[in-house]
Amino acid sequence: MPRPLPEVNSSSQADIAFMLLIFFLVTTTMDVDSGISRVLPPAVDDQEQTDQQLHERNVLEVLVNSKDNLSVEGKRMRLPDLKDKVKEFFTNPNNDPNLPAKRVMEIEFFGPVEVSKGIISLKNARGTTYGMYIKVQNEIARAVSELRNSLSVQKFGKPFDDINADQQKAIVKFYPNAVSEAEPDETKID
Amino acid sequence: MSKFKEKKNKELPAISTSSLPDIIYMLLFFFMVSTTMKENSLLVKVTAPGATEVKKLEKKSLVSYIYIGSPLGLKNQAIFGTEPRIQLNDAYANVEDIRNFIASERDAMDESDRPFMTTSIKADENVKMGIVVDVKQALRKAGALKINYSARKVESVL
User: Which of A107, A115, B27, B90 has the most CB atoms lying inside 10 A of its own CB?
Assistant: First the structure.
């Protein structure tokens, strides 16, 4: 009959685990990185810049000056009003000739639909604070996501975050995130 | 009757500590899973602006960071002043350095990942847009077009 082996002393196992634990406690940072994603326009040569003329009614000009004041289409506006202005700009419910034109586009799930040609041109002065700029970006993003959400609920009966990727793609086509970041040499505002 | 005989051994048995490592391991695994290593030690003060429409940055390995803010600490302020500076990796940098920084970050990635490279701009909410615009122009020239304005999630910004 084999003699039973003496048990391995496992009391130091806890100490080893403690050491690892303390290492991870010290190196850990819990914060998740979050932010507003944007795509910059590719760098272009100066000669090519002019060939992309946009119709004036299709552009919503949003300016932020160095005193962090906001103006939309040349008129002063308070930040809380920006969201509704952007929503009106993209939907153009009454086909107002001053608001963006629409073009017919074939989109999955929707068939041929009218999609706005509108583009928001966001310009800022060099003296604008970054916080204000992000607030304006945020309001525009909020307007677009509200439009997407209401379309998604109307079409699929679920909010935008709960529909599948193909459906999301269709809705993004319907309401693209059309923000153009201005060339800095155009931003001689103060 | 031997059944009711009082036990001779009055001492309390020692509490078994054999499950202590298991408990520690549970904590350990929690921290191992939830941990993200610090990327850089900050040399500039960055208070991210608040926003409601934030999205989580996924795939940390595809993200490179550019920090913009006033130099942090009296020693750095004595040398570099309090004007906002750009930080790349672990050192202060100029706008011209961004091109090399992006190139080296891109080289460090797998070829299949390169189109998905994202640059996160972590700027203090009080810096002026001038320096941010310069950084954005440098990024455009370097071909790093996917950017992310780092922001905190807040309930309302108005």
Answer: A115
Q: Which residues of chain A are within 8 Å of residue B29 when distances are taken between CB atoms?
A: none
Which CATH number belongs to the domain containing residue B140 in this structure? 3.30.420.270
Tell me the domain boundaries of chain A: 55-146+179-186
Domain that holds residue B88: 50-153
Distance of CA A17 to the CA centre of its chain: 43
- Count of structural domains within chain B: 1
Q: Which residue of B54, B117, B136 to mutate against A (max A Cβ within 10 Å)?
A: B54
With a CB cutoff of 8 Å and minimum separation 6, the contacts of B101 are B64, B66, B88, B89, B93
* Cβ–Cβ below 8 Å for A126 and B133: yes
A52-104 residue pLDDT tens? 566 777 888 888 888 888 888 888 888 888 888 888 888 887 777 778 877 78
Name the residue among B24, B34, B157 with its Cβ closest to that of A18: B24
As for the ipTM of the complex, it is 0.75
Judged by a CB distance cut-off of 8 A, whether residue B146 touches chain A is yes
pTM score, two decimals? 0.77
Residue B67 lies inside a defined structural domain of this protein = yes
How confident is the model over B104-146, as pLDDT tens digits? 888 888 888 888 888 889 898 888 888 888 888 888 888 888 8
B69: nearest CA partner in chain A: A130
Pick from B88, B121, B63: nearest CA to A134: B121
Q: Shortest CB distance from B38 goes to which of A27, A137, A142?
A: A27
Report if residue B88 sits inside a domain.
Answer: yes
Q: Is residue B10 one of the residues assigned to a domain?
A: no
CA B133 to CA A175: how far, in whole Å? 27
Q: Report if residue B112 sits inside a domain.
A: yes
